[in-house]
What does this fold into?
Amino acid sequence: MTEAASTTQNKETKKAKVNGKPQAKQQRVISDPKEVAQLVMMRIDQVNSKKDELTIAVKGLADTAKQLVSVYAQQQAQLAKLTKRVEELEKAGGK
It folds into this structure.
């Protein structure tokens, strides 16, 4: 961002609060194509940054889900073994 744009943005930020209360932001008109391109690229960078954060979060959730599914499968297998063993013991005790 250019120094002039930064200064303008700072002034707008200061104007945004009157008596400690937020006011509606004033939008300024940008006619310089270079400045428009710079703002667009800045927004794209912000979106890409958020996208990267979301990707990391989703991968973390997927890893957790995989671990939960694995543990659940192990528990189900153990329960099946225990059920079979109980049935065998009941049959042996009933004879």
Summary: The first helix runs from residue 3 to 15. The beta strands are 17-18, 21-22. The first strand starts at residue 17 and ends at 18.
